[in-house]
Amino acid sequence: MQSTLKRSVQFTGIGLHSASSVTLIIHPADVGFGLQIRRTDVKDGGYGFAAHWTCVSHSPLCTRLVNDEGVSISTVEHVMAALAGCGVHNALIELNGPEAPILDGSAVPFVQEILAAGVRPQNVPVTVFKVLKTVEFRCDSGWARLAPADTLQMDFHIDFEDAAIGSQSKTLNLANGAFVRELCDSRTFCRQSDVEMMRANGLALGGTLHNAVVVDGESVLNPGGMRYSDEPVRHKMLDALGDLALAGAPIIGHYTGVRAGHAITNNLLRELFTVPGAVEKVQCTPAMLACLPGVGVTEQEIPKSA
User: Fold this and answer.
1) pLDDT tens string 235-256
2) Residue 61: inside a domain
3) Are 255 and 145 in contact (CB under 8 A)?
4) What is the CATH number of the domain that holds 224?
5) Catalytic residue of the set 17, 78, 254, 262
């Protein structure tokens, strides 16, 4: 069955790039509403967004949505990953600024509040996008692929010069709350040299050691280090789930990402929905429904490392 939240949940914090305080509220929504976003600080129309891949404006550092009136919302990937990973199909996201709060740099604050509020089943079947044909998107920096599978599966590989990260790979079947258990508390990361360059260009102004893992060569600059030895690749998988959640319905398929970022995953969705016969929208069978991310997940499964 489709699902929504039992009650609204609220988050307040700074944006990663603007350093301005913003409040984000996730409200329950009716069957068929899907995931939509509203800018409450824009008063003259043009404040509504579909949380959809067609609204993505490519940005190197985050996922940014822009509507037909040119109003934008940035850094939506973590809240989208949390909603997908907790099995929420219908919700209205309201925020009073141009960027979602970064919180601790992961999706775990969203997951904690969503599961504390509770997820309410709705008496309408879930429809999903089932991948029928392998599609790929490649560019100089990396590539991503979606292939047929019976559940949402994910492989990811990253490779960085900094020894604190190096080469990392992870494979995960995202069924039955695996996102909450394995990925949701993994934080965004960057290199110290990148921080200096971004700030010189007016970016990442809200970035601190409280909301991002910062590495410099062999060193992790955060007190306490990483939450997992492979936290960077886990966070890349978190981001990928958030970007795939912009498909408009859950995806059943096998995602592979190699040095893939937000733009690559969005271009992969564009391939999926433009290649004839690559995907079909189907009503979930009981077996398919039982394997969707978030089905049956509880607060007790949230990692204790956050």
Assistant:
1) 999 999 999 999 999 999 999 9
2) yes
3) yes
4) 3.30.1700.10
5) 262
